[in-house]
Amino acid sequence: KQKFILDTDPGIDDALAIALACRHADLELLGVCAVAGNALLSCTYPNAKNIMKLCGRADVPVLRGHDAPLEKKLRCGDDAHGINGLDGYEFLDQPKLPETEEAVNFMIDMVMRYPHEVTIVAIGPFTNVAAAIQQEEQFASHVKRILVMGGAVNVPGNVSAVAEFNVMSDPLAAQIIVNSGIDVSFIPLDITLQTRLKPEDLAEICENDHPVSNFLNAVLKHRFEVLEARGELGYPMHDPLTIGALIDPSLIQYEDYFMQIETTQGALAEGMCVLDRRREAPKPNVHVGVGVDSDRFLTLYKETIRGY
Ligand code: BDR
Ligand code: CA
Questions:
Q1: 195-to-134, 163, 187 alpha-carbon distances in Å
Q2: Average model confidence (pLDDT) across the chain
Q3: End-to-end distance of the chain based on CA atoms, in angstroms?
Q4: Which of 51, 146, 249, 278 has the fewest CB atoms nearer than 10 Å to its CB?
Q5: Which 3 state secondary structure label does DSSP give 46?
Q6: pLDDT tens, 42-71?
Q7: Residue 85, by phi and psi: left (phi above 0), alpha (psi -120 to 50) or beta?
Q8: Is Nucleotidyltransferase one of the keywords (predicted)?
């Protein structure tokens, strides 16, 4: 089983990703770190806790992470995730936010306890992960790898002409990660936008009439309407595909590049992933997902969730 820590900002597609991460037999989820992003931490933390409980994994620790990016102001993704990050979906319990940050020490402890065994999967802004790299000198040499949902490489961004939400939320954190010397893989918009859950896929999932699928149905319903009004068919599986990439690496085709992130605040290209494609480019520092077997992933997704 693959040991991993999930760093997340739930978030509708984060919720879909957590449901997959909790259920798949090949994965050993050590902990869930909540970060501010799609919504304030005061929402993403209780959301993460509630979703874990709903998925039958209340035994897995959920840790409070950073409530703001390293050096810029938080800008939540309300357009895409509505109020509270889950389009207004309210759980009965509202677990209290711990008073202090605890995710960074948790990540460091796990990575040092299981050297070269722990993968960090980050599907929100990369603030917690970057803070762990900065805080513990040995983190980079002891972590197995980092897998992130982020970036737009050959397609337009989703929060500016060139930038994707997770990278744009904390470009400095992204830059720290790509320059850390760690084995880093990016699952960018290029392939997540090609991988969409259609209403009929959701209907198939919901045949099991389980609280998890009913919850996913509730948070996605309105999203499908919004997307349809915009002429888009299906919900992009940004974060779930990243879990897919962990479960089955053969779903993704990667290319290796030397990549840097534009960190200048307010600049036209802030948050852009700049690939150096020149022949004289420095040695690659990231694997970038450029191709995906979307159908195979969607089958894996549906089968796993139907297994609840
Ligand atoms: C990413 O941004 C968030 O809105 C989603 O949860 C996903 O992690 C897509 O750009
Ligand atoms: Ca996310």
A1: 34, 19, 12
A2: 96
A3: 19
A4: 278
A5: helix
A6: 999 999 999 999 999 999 999 999 999 999
A7: left
A8: no
**Best mutation site among 6, 14, 87, 155 for ligand 1 pocket (most ligand atoms within 8 Å of CB):** 14
Residue 194, SS3 per DSSP: coil
Enumerate residues lining ligand 1, CB below 6 A: 11, 13-14, 38, 77, 80, 123, 149, 158, 164-166, 238-239
Separation between Cα atoms, residue 304 and residue 299, nearest integer Å: 8
Tens-digit pLDDT profile for residues 268-297: 999 999 999 999 999 999 999 999 999 999
pLDDT band of 137, cuts 50, 70, 90:
very high
Contact indicator for 37, 125 with CB cutoff of 8 Å: yes
Specify the DSSP element, H or E, that contains 256: strand 252-261
For residue 191, the CA-to-ligand 1 centroid distance in Å is 13
The pLDDT of residue 190: 98
Q: Which residues are catalytic?
A: 9
Q: How far is the CA of 182 from the CAs of 66, 178, 285, in angstroms?
A: 21, 8, 8
Whether residue 120 contacts residue 50, with contact meaning beta carbons closer than 8 Å, is answered with no
Q: What tens digit of pLDDT does each residue of 221-241 get? A: 989 999 999 999 999 999 999
CA of 166 to the centre of ligand 1 (A): 6
